[in-house]
Amino acid sequence: MKKILSAGLSLYALGLSPAVCATPNPSAMTTGQVTFVMKEIGVGAGYTWGAGQLVYGGRSYDFTMSGGGLGSVGYSHISGHGTVHNLARLQDFDGTYWAVQAEATMGRGVGSKLLENNHRVDINLTAATATGARLSAEAMRITFHLRPSH
Fold it and tell me: Keywords on this record (predicted)?
């Protein structure tokens, strides 16, 4: 959590306060990859929901995500990818993550999120495409749930 609230990701590039920025730990081991689609809506307080796929240990696992935060206005539909760091056991992926995120979308936009859970698993999400009209610089909580495999 400490690194989540500490120094400078893309919020700084968007001209927003570096005090709420985050940087991934450069020594953290990449242990998985994710792709995702999510929707976000906010008027001060915001809500996020979506789904994705985790690739870990040579296998793919579907997951859902939902959560909320403070500091957003508007709506966006985002698809993207990310890296997972420090995932030692698959069951450590499930749970609630704290996140710092920045997004600027008007028609098309950019954004990123850096998340960390209580198992010290980090996920760095990057929007490949974002559509809608939304501006945010927020701290949030997002819960990830692995779907049962068929």
Answer: Signal
